[in-house]
Design goal:
It comes from Betta splendens (Siamese fighting fish). Keywords: Disulfide bond, Glycoprotein, Immunoglobulin domain, Ion channel, Ion transport, Membrane, Signal, Transmembrane, Transmembrane helix, Transport. InterPro entries: Ig-like_dom, Ig-like_dom_sf, Ig-like_fold, Ig_sub, Ig_V-set, Myelin_P0-rel. This protein is α+β, with helices and mostly antiparallel strands. The chain has 3 helices and 11 strands. It has a 6-stranded mixed β-sheet, with no helix packed on it. Strands 3-9-8 form a 3-stranded antiparallel β-sheet, with no helix packed on it. Strands 1-4 form a two-stranded antiparallel ribbon. Helices cover about 30% and strands about 25% of the residues. The radius of gyration is 34 Å and the shape is elongated. Among the domains are: about 35-155, Immunoglobulin-like; about 160-200. Bound molecules: 2-acetamido-2-deoxy-beta-D-glucopyranose (5 copies). One 2-acetamido-2-deoxy-beta-D-glucopyranose (NAG) binds next to loops.
């Protein structure tokens, strides 16, 4: 009688961290596709009392670096864009010479840490509206990039309700965390299942081996049993 020994190779599940690594690389990819990015911060609006002095924040960032970056600030006055100021930044860290077209405006960012914020003094109700921070980097075929900041001029300062922003932010964060946890758990479960299956198959092979030796002639066991195939 011939005893067939088959070494069962269980399918190898991917390591549980593979999903996470993939997610990370996708995130990095998204991050770096935008060569130049203008940002007015996490809260793109400000409510200020007339007569006060405010900073309109803006920073730029670029994966590929900048050279002769053109930027300006524009004010949307009833649909027509008015230039507030403009300049060209030769390279990172250089303080640019900024042309200012509007009164009570000062360039305060000084290009320190890519900061191109401006200061608006003694604001009036006419100053309220949309301000666009615009940038164009010749290094990336003159593509236009911009970010919009809203200035709301009020008589008296009300308490700004940030609850909704916080709720949305935590909901998005929670969803991402849940998804990552779910993927990890799924991979872990598959891994454990595969391990259990492997154990089961080992048991089957062992018991069939015992069955065969019981049927065979005692003593001839060593002769009739071929060496197990190894892979
Ligand atoms: C703001 O505007 C109100 C109403 O026009 C005026 O009474 C007040 O004096 C102004 N405040 C400042 C600081 O200019
Ligand atoms: C802006 O537009 C409104 C109507 O759309 C008009 O009444 C107002 O005079 C305009 N203001 C300026 C500064 O052009
Ligand atoms: C802002 O108002 C104050 C007091 O009215 C004045 O001294 C100052 O020069 C004004 N600033 C600008 C930039 O106009
Ligand atoms: C940009 O510069 C202004 C003025 O120096 C400062 O108040 C602001 O915090 C800076 N913003 C960032 C993001 O560094
Ligand atoms: C970028 O903006 C300028 C105006 O500032 C416009 O003339 C040009 O066509 C825009 N280029 C692209 C690629 O959108």
């Amino acid at each position: 009688m011939e005893v067939q020994w088959v070494v069962v190779q269980p399918p190898r599940p991917g390591p549980p961290h593979a999903a996470m690594a993939l997610t990370l690389s996708i995130l990095m990819g998204v991050w770096c596709t935008q060569a130049l990015e203008m940002s007015v911060g996490k809260i793109p609006f400000l409510e200020a009392v007339n007569g006060s002095t405010v900073i309109l924040p803006c920073t730029y960032s670029s994966c590929i670096g900048i050279k002769n970056l053109y930027f300006n600030w524009q004010f949307n006055d009833n649909g027509t864009m008015q230039r507030v100021c403009e300049s060209v930044i030769a390279s990172e860290g250089v303080v640019p010479d900024v042309h200012i077209f509007r009164e009570r405006v000062e360039f305060v960012g000084k290009n320190r840490d890519n900061n191109i914020s401006i200061l608006l003094s003694n604001i009036t109700f006419e100053d309220g509206g949309q301000y666009t921070c615009f940038g164009r980097n010749p290094k990336e075929k003159d593509r236009n990039h911009s970010a919009v900041f809203n200035l709301i001029v009020v008589d008296e300062l009300r308490v700004v309700d940030n609850t909704l922003t916080i709720i949305i932010a935590s909901a998005v964060g929670g969803a991402i965390a849940f998804l990552m946890g779910f993927m990890l758990l799924k991979n872990l479960t598959l891994f454990v299942l595969a391990k259990m299956e492997e154990k089961n198959k080992e048991c089957l092979v062992t018991s069939s081996g015992i069955d065969n030796t019981e049927n065979g002639v005692p003593g001839s066991k060593a002769d009739s049993k071929p060496t197990p195939k190894k892979k």
